[in-house]
Amino acid sequence: MLLERIKERAKQFGLSLSDVAEKTGISPNTVYSWRVKTPRSDKLKQVAELLHTTTDYLNGLTDDPSLPTDDLFSLDDDKPVMYHGYTVPDKYLDMIRGLMDADIKEGKADKHE
After folding, report:
1. pLDDT of 69
2. Distance of alpha carbon 81 from alpha carbon 32, whole angstroms
């Protein structure tokens, strides 16, 4: 399951398992060995970071690949947004929403960044 999840997630970023190995500095043989072996936690963490997910997702402990959103906020909410101590005016938020809507419609938006 682990290797399949890594493959699936890598594909979403246009990466192969060899690319994952190269970008993390882990040997391809090591990555492929995870089909039958348990990886070292530090190596798996490197892969999870590269693939913008959690080790829990890669290990099959959760089906949610999303990272915790402690530092993120949603522009879908009606909560005030602050920038350097100033409230961001609605007109600026509307411009950002418009830009994002256009990118989403054109397929340019990336949910994983």
Report:
1. 63
2. 45
